[in-house]
């Protein structure tokens, strides 16, 4: 019989790495890939089909956490119910953060979450189908085969699902940092973006001719390699799926044709090679003359203009156009940067089209709640780490900070507020690393921007600046080398960065002559893409092209650097996430060879360690890891009392710490009652005093009136009048009994609309639950 292993690591009796691994390995062997740490889900990638996503997932609907085995659908259910306000009160918007290294299963988890949320809101309308079906399109253009993962997302995404009450009304996709450099270069064992292979495999012979496509092995940007027949067959099916998705998203025929033509143009462009002549001039090699002609045709521009934009740069200084001839390296860089920009813009445009389609069609005054799902690249540490890795690792630092904030800071703050004796848990606070990156004016990104603004500055200058500013910083290490290297000690380990190309990638400018060339292209989509502006967060904003000349605003407005755009987009993302109720899924990769039923203990332990999961287990184990639903909790522990004011107070009695908690609870409750009684007694006494004084005043008034009458009758001069006692100013009343009581009990009132029967509900934050006290008078 199979051993019953704990479903929640917070319940482990022994907390050491050995027992932790034993439980995870044991569960993995039994195909139990999901395990809880309190309310956090750990998911180990099975690398094989499991039948746990079939009919039984329908049980994960308003389910009690303890009644069903841990599952990704439980996270979807919890987020959905919280968004509807059916669980403990808190922010209505929810966010699910999925993290893990490449190939750990983030994207699969995202798809499962989306699918289950659609299931929960009984989605079968067109919109819900569209939300699920845009995935193949995004994956085709944004994913690629890497050594870590055959279907690796080469961009980060935050999907915001928007709901009106329980039904989904729209969605928005925010994309982050598409790895554009993959278009022109892939490391050994890796491929270009899927779409190139899908297109070459799936396109008909007739269309191949129309788009000017040749044998796939002839393209340098594909490393001259293509797939075996079974692979090609799978790509063919994928191509049909992408084409369907484009129809469904609402791409016009012309747009689809243009898109394919641009992709074909990118492939041809990659084959243009340059050589120097005897006179040191640069020219396109004889062998690639045909490729130049093909590219110009596919991009809808003149061949000579394309050649000029590759071999020289034109800049305008004081009204005078100055031409600078490129050397061979510069011409190759210009070629590659056109390919990267064109591809990046096609991708940005697809995302904007998808967002247009999925935008909520409701009045703007309708309040929509949101569930956001963040699927973003994991921490990266390669043999050579470049600008892209720096940005990716910065994003991961930011996410780790968000995780720490919720799991350690907020949790321990709450215990402190509740007066629970608590041994502080130390954890790796990565705020200093974030400061190292983001502080103005001397954070790494600010210094990079500063150097990028100097045309003469080099990557070496940038690293020298870093060395001089941060040589004593604890998370920075100077590397003495002729290549511009530096090391950052990240939360997940040391990463050495090679700064070659940092300034150019950060500037990411398109020379004005290239932009002008493409704006004037006869391929309408290309023209729109190059006329588009880029928002401060790096989002492409397509607009109608000006067909004659590039508009000068582009050059005059200060373009944001890639680093600044990324920093801003992270800040916007964090703002949204900090305002939402968080849910965490930590994906773990069991082995590097992507094999089922194999678990490499060291690899798993490393991931647990750098994700901070050991500390998380401790805090969840020693703390209050179980946060029951309000209804579930109320059914078990409700008690009702009444005494003049009806007080319905629901007390917390979770099995652990029961005595301690109930004593504290009772003490507070008695103090609350005593305060109510004291206030009422004081009020009664005050009213009695006021009544007595009023009676005395009326008596004196009566006496005085009678004396005056008597004096008038006797026609004698009146004696001096008896002064009337002054009407006393009423004693200041307390604001109200309730407000004083609530103040004494440290509670905050929540205003509710007044009704005939005055009723106010007060949320009482107590340990890990939110309760309601209802006072009715
Ligand atoms: N729950 C699962 N069941 C079966 N297979 C899975 C599951 N999760 C992941 N896989 C397998 O692992 C592969 C990698 O997963 P996925 O693409 O989700 O990783 P990732 O963390 O998103 O990686 P990257 O950061 O590179 O995009 C999938 O293509 C799939 O084959």
UniProtKB/TrEMBL annotation:
SMART domains: MYSc. Residues 707-736 are annotated as: Disordered. One of its GO terms (biological process) is regulation of actin filament length. Gene3D superfamilies: 1.10.10.820, 1.20.58.530, Kinesin motor domain (3.40.850.10), Myosin VI head, motor domain, U50 subdomain (1.20.120.720). Its main location: other. Residues 4-637 form the Myosin motor domain. ATP binds at residues 100-107. Keywords: Actin-binding, ATP-binding, Cell projection, Cytoplasm, Cytoskeleton, Motor protein, Myosin, Nucleotide-binding, Repeat. GO terms for cellular component: cell projection; myosin complex. Residues 570-592 are annotated as: Actin-binding. It is found in: Cell projection; Cytoplasm, Cytoskeleton. InterPro entries: Kinesin_motor_dom_sf, Myosin-III_kinase_activity, Myosin_head_motor_dom-like, P-loop_NTPase. One of its GO terms (molecular function) is ATP binding. Residues 707-716 have a biased composition (Basic and acidic residues). Belongs to the TRAFAC class myosin-kinesin ATPase superfamily. Myosin family. This is Myosin-IIIb-like. The lineage of its organism: Eukaryota, Metazoa, Chordata, Craniata, Vertebrata.
């Amino acid at each position: 019989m199979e051993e019953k292993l704990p479903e929640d690591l917070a319940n482990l009796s022994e907390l050491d790495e050995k027992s932790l691994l034993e439980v995870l390995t044991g569960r993995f062997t039994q195909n139990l890939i999901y395990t809880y740490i309190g309310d956090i889900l750990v998911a180990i990638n099975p690398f094989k089909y499991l039948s746990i996503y079939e009919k039984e997932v329908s049980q994960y609907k308003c389910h009690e956490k303890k009644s069903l085995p841990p599952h990704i659908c439980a996270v979807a259910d919890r987020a959905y119910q919280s968004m509807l306000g059916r669980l403990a009160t808190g922010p209505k918007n929810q966010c699910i953060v999925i993290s893990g290294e490449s190939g750990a299963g983030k994207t699969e988890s995202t798809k499962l979450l989306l699918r289950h949320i659609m299931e929960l809101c009984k989605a079968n309308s067109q919109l819900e189908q569209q939300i699920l079906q845009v995935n193949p399109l995004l994956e085709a253009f944004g994913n690629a085969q890497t050594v870590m993962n055959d279907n690796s997302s080469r961009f980060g995404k935050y999907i915001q699902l928007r709901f009106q009450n329980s039904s989904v009304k729209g969605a928005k996709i925010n994309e982050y940092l598409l790895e554009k450099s993959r278009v022109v270069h892939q490391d050994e064992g890796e491929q270009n973006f899927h779409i190139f292979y899908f297109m070459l495999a799936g396109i008909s012979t007739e269309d191949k001719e129309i788009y000017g496509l040749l044998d796939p092995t002839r393209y340098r940007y594909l490393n001259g390699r293509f797939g075996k027949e079974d692979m090609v067959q799978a790509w063919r099916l994928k191509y049909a799926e992408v084409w369907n998705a484009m129809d469904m998203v609402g791409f016009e025929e012309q747009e689809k044709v243009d898109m394919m033509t641009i992709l074909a143009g990118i492939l041809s462009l990659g084959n243009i090679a340059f050589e120097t002549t005897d006179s040191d001039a640069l020219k396109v090699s004889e062998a690639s003359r045909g490729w130049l002609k093909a590219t110009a045709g596919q991009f809808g521009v003149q061949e000579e203009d394309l050649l000029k934009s590759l071999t020289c740069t034109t800049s305008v200084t004081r009204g005078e156009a100055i031409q600078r001839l490129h050397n061979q390296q510069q011409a190759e860089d210009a070629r590659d940067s056109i390919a990267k920009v064109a591809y990046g813009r096609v991708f940005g445009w697809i995302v904007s089209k998808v967002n247009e389609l999925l935008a909520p069609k409701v009045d703007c005054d309708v309040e929509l709640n949101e569930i956001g799902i963040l699927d973003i690249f994991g921490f990266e540490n390669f043999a050579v780490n470049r600008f892209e890795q720096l940005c990716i690792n910065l994003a991961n630092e930011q996410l780790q900070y968000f995780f720490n904030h919720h799991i350690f800071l907020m949790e321990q703050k709450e215990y402190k507020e509740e007066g629970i004796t608590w041994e502080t848990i130390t954890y790796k606070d990565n705020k200093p690393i974030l400061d190292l990156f983001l502080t103005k004016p001397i954070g790494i990104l600010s210094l990079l921007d500063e150097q990028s603004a100097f045309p003469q500055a080099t990557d070496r200058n940038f690293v020298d600046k870093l060395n001089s500013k941060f040589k004593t910083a604890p998370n920075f290490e100077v590397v003495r080398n002729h290549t511009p290297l530096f090391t950052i000690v990240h939360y997940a380990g040391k990463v050495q960065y090679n700064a070659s190309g940092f300034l150019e990638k950060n500037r990411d400018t398109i020379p004005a002559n290239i932009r002008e060339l493409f704006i004037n292209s006869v391929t309408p989509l290309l023209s729109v893409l190059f006329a588009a502006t880029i928002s401060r967060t790096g989002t492409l904003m397509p607009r109608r092209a000006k067909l004659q000349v590039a508009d000068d605003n582009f050059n005059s407005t200060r373009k944001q650097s890639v680093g600044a755009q990324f920093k801003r987009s992270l800040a916007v993302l964090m703002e949204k996430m900090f305002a939402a109720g968080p849910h965490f899924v930590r994906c773990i990769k069991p082995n590097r060879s992507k094999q089922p039923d194999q678990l490499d203990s060291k690899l798993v332990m490393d991931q647990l360690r750098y994700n901070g999961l050991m500390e998380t287990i401790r805090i969840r184990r020693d703390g209050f890891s179980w946060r029951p639903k309000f209804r579930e909790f109320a059914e078990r522990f409700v008690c009702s009392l009444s005494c003049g004011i009806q007080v319905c107070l629901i007390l917390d009695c979770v099995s652990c710490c029961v005595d301690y908690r109930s004593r504290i609870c009772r003490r507070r409750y008695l103090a609350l009652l005593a305060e109510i009684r004291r206030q009422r007694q004081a009020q009664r006494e005050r009213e009695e005093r006021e009544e007595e004084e009023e009676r005395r005043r009326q008596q004196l008034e009566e006496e005085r009136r009678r004396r005056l009458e008597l004096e008038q009758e006797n026609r004698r001069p009146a004696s001096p009048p008896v002064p009337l006692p002054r009407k006393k100013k009423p004693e200041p009343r307390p604001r109200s009994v309730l407000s004083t009581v609530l103040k004494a009990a440290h509670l905050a009132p929540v205003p509710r609309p007044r009704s005939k029967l005055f009723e106010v509900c007060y949320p009482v934050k107590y340990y890990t639950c939110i309760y309601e006290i209802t006072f009715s008078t």
